[in-house]
């Protein structure tokens, strides 16, 4: 039995990763880079996100090691599944989705969040809907242009189109 449905999970990076994967009818997120940037934009747009990961400039723009750690733990717990497909910035892209058990846990978390703050949930859902299917280089262009201080260590900055 997974014991993280109390208030404590609601305020952890693992809880936020589950939320993002559950939004927009559980649509998977293609690529760790995309997941990182979606969560980064959320952190910039909605300032009161308690328990949200901290970001720093990384090789692909804003990066949080806390998200990578949360993904590892969630996969180990059988809540998140990672598959690989051709594409992305490299030769392959990691695709993250919730397992059936992960969907049950995330649904419970979302219901609690909805009761507490439906406006935040709607903003997060809109963010995922707006950016989850945009070509990655265009998404990165958006993030890099809005937050150039997080792109300063990017190893792919020269590949990002200019607006």
What does this 3D model show about the protein?
53% of the residues lie in helices and 13% in strands. The strands form two sheets. The chain has a three-stranded antiparallel β-sheet with strand order 1-5-4. Strands 2-3 form a two-stranded antiparallel sheet. The chain has one domain. The model is unreliable at 1-8 (pLDDT under 50). Strand 2 and strand 3 (61-63) form a beta hairpin. It is globular and about 40 Å long. With 163 residues, the chain is α+β, with helices and mostly antiparallel strands.
Q: Tell me about the largest β-sheet.
A: 3 strands, antiparallel
Count of discrete domains:
1
Give the C-alpha Rg.
15 Å
Number of helices, counting only DSSP H or I runs of 4 residues or more = 7
Quote the distance from N terminus to C terminus. Answer: 49 Å
Number of strands: 5
Structural class assignment:
alpha+beta
Helical coverage, percent range: 40-55%
Low-confidence stretches: 1-8
Q: Strand order, biggest sheet? A: 1-5-4
Strand content: 5-15%
What shape does the CA trace take?
A: globular
Order of helices and strands: HHEHEEHEEHHH
Mean pLDDT: 88
């Amino acid at each position: 039995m997974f014991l993280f449905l109390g208030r404590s999970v609601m305020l952890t990076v693992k809880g936020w990763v589950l939320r993002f994967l559950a939004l927009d009818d559980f649509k998977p997120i293609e690529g760790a880079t995309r997941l990182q940037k979606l969560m980064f934009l959320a952190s910039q747009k909605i300032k009161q996100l308690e328990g949200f990961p901290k970001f720093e400039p990384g090789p692909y723009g804003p990066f949080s090691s806390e998200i990578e750690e949360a993904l590892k733990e969630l996969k180990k717990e059988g809540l998140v599944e990672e598959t690989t497909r051709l594409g992305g910035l490299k030769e392959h892209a990691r695709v993250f989705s919730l397992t059936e058990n992960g969907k049950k846990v995330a649904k419970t978390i979302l219901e609690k969040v909805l009761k507490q703050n439906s406006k935040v949930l709607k903003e997060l859902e809109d963010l995922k809907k707006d950016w989850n299917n945009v070509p990655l280089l265009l998404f990165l262009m958006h993030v890099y242009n809005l937050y150039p201080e997080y792109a300063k260590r990017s190893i792919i900055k020269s590949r990002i189109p200019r607006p």
